[in-house]
Amino acid sequence: MERLIEIRQSMALFFDCGYEYFAEYTSPDIVLNRLLYCMRDGKQQGYTPIIVVPDEPLLETFKDNCKDENDKFNIFSLRKFRTAMLHAELMDGKDILEKRLDSLNEQLVESGVNIKKVVGDFEEAYEGPSNNINALEDISFNGVFIVKVPVRYPWQIFAYLPMGDWGICPSNTELMSISKYMYERYQAVPVAMTSNELEFKVLKPITTEHEAMGAAFEHCPLYPRMFEDFGTIGSYAGTLINSSIWYFVWPYLTEHKPKNKAPESRQTYQTHKEFAYTTKQLQRLYGQNN
Fold it and tell me: Where would I find the beta strands (DSSP E) of the chain?
């Protein structure tokens, strides 16, 4: 318990901005209502709110991503990192997702997986749309923060809270780029993060099968467990219809440690000419052209 208190205190110092803390066993409805209020208030006051679940791996990821050239973390390296990130040139988020999907496709083909069976047909979700924030399930154990990140655009959250660049999780610049694309394409904004999970609130939920299948293809690189949890892309697509919450998770395949911006952290997902199918070919094969 003492260690958890230390982690919360360290995270509060790391935020270096406004926040609200909700202790263990606070009703999730109270946090959700407060989040919705902050989303409205933030538009007037110039901040973007997000739920953050305090834990040690996330805190270490934050700090390691913000170390200086001497591998030291302090308030100066933190602010320098944030300034650099806010001024960084973003990539094409859609292009990042397509390249990562191409890489995933190569892995499936090399493993002897039948691509057509993996794609599958669209299936309606048995449990209906997803409208609950999964991170609030952790409130009984850890409590949660609502961090009022002082940025104008929702994708800039990752400049202040760099949860990425470890394992197969995208780099923080990639997360910013992908989030910008998702906001512009789907009106989706980040609303919750843990050490390996990220949730978006979709302000205009998807309502058609065509849209859902297209989005499901794009979500594959952000949800490596998709086939394990849903079997096919088509089955997962059914859960997106009228859902206001999108949930992504990256497994801990190795020790949870950021790669400190090493070039190889982004080489896993380069495109290759020998891929059996490109993203666009897959979407064309199964009628998912934009």
Answer: 18-22, 48-52, 144-149, 188-193, 197-202, 245-249
Question: Which one, of 208, 161, 157, 164, lies nearest residue 186 by Cα?
Answer: 208
Longest dimension (CA), the chain: 55
**Residue 274: per-residue pLDDT:** 29
Rounded to an integer, what distance in angstroms lies between the CA atom of residue 40 and that of residue 46?
10
What is the percent of the chain where pLDDT is above 70?
87
Total count of residues recorded for the chain? 290
| Cβ 147 vs Cβ 19: under 8 Å | yes
φ, ψ dihedrals at 239, nearest 5°: -75, -15
Name the amino acid, one letter, at 152.
R
The secondary structure of 88-147 as a DSSP string is SPP--HHHHHHHHHHHHHHHHHHTT--HHHHH------TT----S-GGGGGHHHH-EEEE
Q: What average pLDDT does this structure show over 132-159? A: 92
Burial of 230-253, coded b for 16+ CB within 10 Å and e otherwise, reads: bebbbbbbbbbbebbbbbbbbeee
| Per-residue model confidence (pLDDT) at position 262 | 34
Alpha-carbon torsion, ordered 154, 47, 202, 53, to 10 deg: 90
193: CB partners within 8 A, 6+ apart: 50, 51, 52, 53, 58, 135, 161, 163, 199
Alpha-carbon gap, residue 253 to 274, rounded angstroms: 26
